Amino acid sequence: GNSVTQMEGPVTLSEEAFLTINCTYTATGYPSLFWYVQYPGEGLQLLLKATKADDKGSNKGFEATYRKETTSFHLEKGSVQVSDSAVYFCALRQNTGNQFYFGTGTSLTVIP
Amino acid sequence: DSGVTQTPKHLITATGQRVTLRCSPRSGDLSVYWYQQSLDQGLQFLIQYYNGEERAKGNILERFSAQQFPDLHSELNLSSLELGDSALYFCASSVFSGGAETQYFGPGTRLLVL
């Protein structure tokens, strides 16, 4: 079946540190992959996406590359800010079928 | 602002009661998804509607039901409420863009069952 596995949180980093949040997936074929961010008290917001192997999604300094060979879509940012503190969700959608599959979320806290 | 609206923002009710949560998708989006987010189970897909018809069903209890109306707004009905139904309920509408179906989430309804 389809599933998404994210690294366990919470993650605490100092401002300007490098961020990696690991995400691996199980799916048949070529799903689309997403990262969503949820700030406290708010809904999920699309952060970035990639639709095929080797695509790199990027937004607001965050990047993730669709790696078919390792079934991964790790989220990275070179220098985090306090305002990046949030919960990050990795997700996939199969090209057939109508369901999105979400990881359990990784909580990030950035301290000044 | 995603363009998806949900009402009410907060809801407090008692066990055994019934509530209705409302979602209005972004203008032009035909598809609506409902999710339940709880601390112990993360984000759980409940059900999807597309242009008024049910498209997919996830982990939705029989006590829960949903529908999508001709104006494309959707309602999620929760009945015989239990303490464990306390959670955040999100709806999302979706559109195909950049080669992928992308979801846009509303701000959620926080339900507390006492």
Task: Give the structure's gist in a few sentences.
The complex is a heterodimer of chains A (112) and B (114). With 112 residues, chain A is mostly beta strands. Chain A has no helices and 12 strands.
Written description of the protein model:
The complex is a heterodimer of chains A (112) and B (114). By secondary structure, chain A is an all-beta fold. Chain A has no helices and twelve strands. In chain A, strands 2, 5, 6, 10, 11 and 12 form a six-stranded mixed β-sheet that branches. In chain A, strands 3-9-8-7 form a four-stranded antiparallel β-sheet, with no helix packed on it. A two-stranded antiparallel ribbon of chain A has the order 1-4. The N and C termini of chain A lie far apart (41 Å). Chain B is mostly beta strands and 114 residues long. Helix content of chain B is 0%, strand content 59%. Chain B has strands at residues 5-7, 10-13, 19-24, 31-38, 42-50, 53-57, 64-68, 74-78, 87-97, 100-105, 109-113. In chain B, a hairpin with a 2-residue loop joins strand 9 (87-97) and strand 10 (100-105). Chain B is globular, with a radius of gyration of 14 Å. Chain B starts with a strand and ends with a strand. The model of chain B has no long low-confidence stretch (mean pLDDT 93). Chains A and B meet through strand 5, strand 6 and strand 11 of A and strand 5 and strand 10 of B.
Ranges of chain B where pLDDT stays below 50 over 5 or more residues in a row are none
SSE class of chain B: mainly beta
Put simply, the count of helices of chain A is: 0
- The amount of beta strand of chain A, in percent, is over 45%
- How much is the radius of gyration of chain B in Å? 14 Å
* DSSP strand tally of chain A: 12
What share of residues of chain B is helical?
under 10%
Report on the biggest sheet of chain A: 6 strands, mixed
Total number of helical segments of chain B?
0
Distance between the first and last residues' Cα of chain A: 41 Å
Over the alpha carbons, how many angstroms does the gyration radius of chain A reach?
A: 13 Å
Tally of extended strands of chain B? 11
Average residue-wise pLDDT of chain B? 93
